[in-house]
Amino acid sequence: LPSVSADEQNVPYQGLPGTKYERTFMMVKPDGVQRQLTGEIIKRMETKGYVLVGLKMVTPDEKLVSQHYDDLKARPFYKGLVKYMSSSGPVVAMVFQGKGVVDYGRVMIGVTDPLKSAPGTIRGDLSVDVGRNTIHGSDGTSPAQDEIALWFKPEEVADIKNCASAWIYE
Ligand code: ADP
User: Fold this and answer.
1) What is the pLDDT of residues 59-80, one digit of tens each?
2) Is the ipTM of this complex over 0.90?
């Protein structure tokens, strides 16, 4: 087994670009939960080599959704988006950890419009409509930190020493 210390396997995320074990916030939206795509989505992220360190099913209220999408409040679809996300049943909130997980997580998700997302991406493979695009993923390391803090208490995000790290990172 390659020699990797426990500390190297579990470097705390400092929120700095380039940090080896960074974290991102992802969320299976109500349509993804209803269509039972949660397992498929987690499987894609785990198979890549990213580690699930936070997971919960939440039925968000308008306040939480408004805070989450605060940067979009001037957009024409904002009101409908907040209503949809807060009145359609549960979402699955997740924190994934790993090298490049913020930006590469977005690559794995695809672009906002599923019909413009490449096959092989989550939205490209699993959805059709922009308002039912299955998943959210943080757009940058700073939003990732804010969103993790918004959706999770610190003690709800695990400090996992992943036993496969030495086989994923050199
Ligand atoms: P992304 O989720 O790809 O980061 P945005 O942050 O721009 O995209 O938008 C947040 C969410 O708002 C999108 O995922 C989508 O569900 C919804 N949305 C974006 N644009 C539209 C639109 N033109 N009409 C309806 N819903 C939209």
Assistant:
1) 999 999 999 999 999 999 999 9
2) yes
Report whether residue 78 contacts ligand 1, using a CB cutoff of 6 Å: no
35: amino acid identity, one letter: R
Rounded distance between C-alpha atoms, residue 131 and residue 119, angstroms: 19
Ligand 1 centroid to 69 CA: how many Å? 10
d(CA 26, CA 6): 26
- Contact call for residues 89 and 33 (beta carbons, < 8 A): yes
For residue 133, give the ligand 1 atom closest to its CA: 16
State pLDDT tens for residues 89-124.
Answer: 999 999 999 999 999 999 999 999 999 999 999 999
Report whether 123 contacts 117 (CB < 8 A). yes
DSSP code, position 113: S
Q: Residue 50's closest CA among 17, 29, 24?
A: 24
